User: What shape does this take?
Amino acid sequence: MPIDLLGQYLLNTVMLGLIYALVAVGFTLFFGVMNIIQFSHGDIVMMGAFMCLYLVGAVASADIMPAPAQLIVSFVFAAALLGFVGIAIGRFLVLPMKDAPPLNVLLITLMLGTIIRECVRLFVPGGSNPIRFPPLLSTESYSLGKFTLRLDSALMLIIGAAVLIGTRTLIKRTKLGLAIQAVGQDEETARILGIDDRGVVLATFAIGAGLAAVAGVFSGLYYNQINFDMGLLLGVIGFSSAIVGGLGALGGAVLGGLLFASLQTFGTLALPIGGEYKDIFAFTVVIAIMTWRPTGLLGEKYKERV
Amino acid sequence: MLRQAGASKLRERIIALVIAGAIGVFCHRILTERSDVVLVCLLLFGACVLWLCGSEKFAPGIRRGYERNSVFVHLWSSIMVVAVALSLRADPFALHLLSTALIFAAVSAALNLQFGFCGVLNFSAAGFFGLGAYTAALLSPLGLDGTIVLLAAGVVAGMTGFLLALPIVRTRGHYAAVITIAFGIMFRNLLEVTDAVGGPQGLKVDGLSFFGYRLNENLGIYSCSFFFNYVLVSLALLAAFVFVMRRIDGSFVGIGFDSIRLDETTAACFGLDIWRWKLSAFTMGNAMLAIVGALYGSMLGYVAPSNFSFSDSLIFVSIIILGGIGSVWGGVIAAVIVVLLSEKLQPIQEYRFLIFSTLVVLVLLFRPQGLMRRPLREFSQET
Assistant: This one.
């Protein structure tokens, strides 16, 4: 394969992997702090994309600031709004179920995801069909042979990497991050040490949902369209990536996301049966990896003590 | 003393008969009702009665009565279903609904075996259900006997489930959830892109025939729709499933499942082979799902990928949560309610996924035991 085409595929894979990694990090965060799976996360991603789309429209029609500022404002506003949604989910659905069997949290968030999906399908105008997502960033491009780098892709790569590194710094270096880790390891001890455990859990939900907003907007920009059920597949892919990388490890989530994207690209390029089977191929490999290493590639090996 | 016990048994049986008759009349009324407003009132009334029956005050008494006369109750509820079906014999739509409700009830029984008994999550119930339907579709040109088709569907799904179960039994809890979800989504995806099974349009299924009797033909009863035959077959399948479930529940197998669901580590310490138990529950449940799926496909006359989506799997899961996880009869009743609500009330059909998922969230928050709590095992001797 010529080097320029290879470079193009590599770039696309990294872009996709970045989106998956952003979703996977959310799953890992929720799992790390409360040992729960927040299955509606994928649909929160979808909600982020829709919110940003409508906010951009609203801010643009208000017409009070220059175009780049409009974009930043609506982007940040969407992430913040979604953060509140995350807090609401944590406060009203997840925290009350703390003493119930873990299965119930899974079921309740799964059903919440369906509710969000159906609400968008039924109540957003035109929501049952794919909606065009406008190229918000500049689409100027630089070509080198068959290799084309669009400016918005480059910007997304930079912003996405910055967001991931920022999340890592937040978890590893700040006081809030330490509190999140403490609650994740031992909630009772954390409480005795004066950490507001409920607050920490809610903060984690806000962070996760904010990341979901970024992922949703990126996905919209990448595919140029958004859809009410895009969150379902994105959520399952994100969750599988988090598991393959090792639930609870931030680096694992990124690795898993990139791995899944490479599998998809590989499936499109190398399989004789064609690109339609790329998801099936990727999931099969991922499930095989899960069977081989049930705790993921980077996750800690667990031993159960009784 | 003995005589007193006999008299109270007779009284219980008369009460059971009256209740069965009342439920039969009620179901008949719902199935034939044309006005949406009356229908909603009837359904609300039924829901209130069920809610009361499931409450702590009445449930133990009802359960005791049921356990003492279980054979009698099963017999009379089957007769009641046949009677309702006979009285509706000229109404194909009502019979179709009744048969669908019975099929969904059988699905809930199969899912309860995995989910409620052994605690193996399965979010691709519609996938296995569809696998059965597609097997029936692919086999229909061969003109095999119905029993062979149903068995073949069960074997295909059982083997697929076995392959899928290998990662599931190696991983724990939530991982199983994502594996089955991925399977459910991928199954539909695979059907849609594979032209050999009809792609998005799906396939046509011929009606099954059992021992020379074709289900899609009138069996000779005057002005009787052929859906009546499907009611009979689905009733037979449901009865068989309920029988199997009750046998399992009452035997050492059920106790093994329970201990694995409640605490895997402890169960393993007591020498249970977790791998084997989980695998058998998962495989058996999937085979049962596919068998009813094959019947469903042949009743519809066609199969298409859109009938077996992830949302349908969620509806199946909702049914057993609403009915009470692990409660066989709760699942059966919830299945009937869900089918009647979504098919009979045309205005809400578009909103059914939304309504049922909201209902499940509310149930999980405020009444996690569902409609009927699964009873705890009673090991003390009755004196």
